Amino acid sequence: MADRPKPIVRLIMIATRAGVEPLDNDRVLRNPLTRIDAGRFPWREDEVAVYAQLSGGLGRWELAVEFGERLDGGLFRPIGPTRAFVLDFGPAARLAVWEADSPFRRLPFRREGLYAFRMVGRPAGDPDDTAFEVLEGIHPGIPAVAELRVLAQGGRP
Amino acid sequence: MSEKSDDGWSHGRSENPARRFSAPVTDCSDWEPDIPADQWTHGRSVNPALRYSAPVTDCSDWDCEPAAWLEIRVRVEPQTESAAVEAVIVRLTHAAAAAAPELGLLYDTSRSRVDGRDVVVALTPTHPIGPADRLAEIVRTLAAAPHTTAAWRHAG
């Protein structure tokens, strides 16, 4: 089952909040973010949400949003994943599109730097020790990430 | 919901077909546990991004049939090599674009063709075509080349 087509992350964005507008049932991102000016380190941002749009997968996938710090040399220091959730992309058409939003409370930034969210997944129903893989974006071979630059408040323009 | 316009296009606001999932809140208070809880500060930072909101772009006239397009017809002798024909086409396309830069003329692959011994190069304006005397002037400029005629064609 491991060869089953993986979902592709067509869009991943960070905002203060993501949710559904009750008035017209539209998905709404409130205050999209690419930078945070933190008050003092270590800093926890009270409210952050990640919105992702996925398609191209086949069958049921167990997914999670992973958060981490991007280090020099392209290294990624994982800080935390969300609890995994399962989305069903259907049996054949591979046209199913899923929107998923994941809210976070008190997201930690221990220092200035570049942080990122990425989607990870594995086929649902695989043994528990099957590793989650980082999902690609629309460009094959390149993971889809949403980055957040975190600076000290007033430190830089 | 869709409506039909007079110009043949339907329009409306389509439903987003995506299925939706909202995860429960992930409380990250215990992430990075090597830093004691009392050392963290927290809050809601101000978004430092500069903001720009573009005015609405009305696309009603995008991807419509042009009201008129320019056709340049060149008589090609049977012994002329295809490379030479291509060179003529490129030269004419550039000459036309230079003669009427305000029209933003683009090579029109669907209307350009070979017609008997003639090569017909069609150029579609991407900007409003302007007054008739200006269009006539462009035709005169292009038709000055040997074995070449030029004319504006109109839709409908």
What structural category do the secondary elements of chain A indicate? Answer: mainly beta
Helix content of chain A: under 10%
Let me know the largest β-sheet of chain B: 5 strands, antiparallel
Mean pLDDT of chain B: 84
Instruction: State the distance separating the first and last CA atoms of chain B.
Output: 30 Å
Please tally the helical runs of chain B, counting DSSP H or I stretches of 4 or more residues.
2
Count the E strands of chain A: 11
Largest sheet of chain A: 7 strands, mixed
- Helix and strand pattern of chain B: EEEEEEHEEEHE
Roughly how many Å is the radius of gyration of chain A?
16 Å
CATH class of chain A: Mainly Beta
Oligomer: heterodimer
**What are the low-pLDDT stretches of chain B, counting only 5+ consecutive residues below 50?**
none
The CATH architecture of chain A can be given as: Sandwich
Q: What does the model show?
A:
- The complex is a heterodimer of chains A (157) and B (156).
- Chain A has 157 residues and is mainly beta.
- Chain A has one domain (8-152): Immunoglobulin-like.
- Chain A has strands at 8-21, 26-32, 35-38, 43-55, 60-70, 76-81, 85-88, 97-109, 113-123, 133-134, 145-152.
- Chain A is globular and about 50 Å long.
- Chain B contains 2 helices and 10 strands.
- Chain B has helices spanning 82-99, 132-142, and strands at residues 2-4, 10-12, 19-22, 26-27, 41-43, 68-75, 105-107, 113-115, 118-125, 148-154.
- In chain B, the strands form 2 sheets. In chain B, strands 6, 7, 8, 9 and 10 form a 5-stranded antiparallel beta sheet that branches. Chain B has a two-stranded antiparallel sheet with strand order 1-2.
- Helix content of chain B is 19%, strand content 28%.
- In chain B, β8 and β9 form a beta hairpin.
- Classes of the chains: A mainly beta (157), B alpha+beta (156).
- Chain A binds chain B through residues 16, 19-20, 26-27, 31, 33-47, 53, 65, 67, 79-80, 82-83, 85, 87, 96-108, 110, 153, and chain B through 16-29, 31-32, 35, 39-49.
- β8 (97-109) of chain A pairs parallel with β3 of chain B.
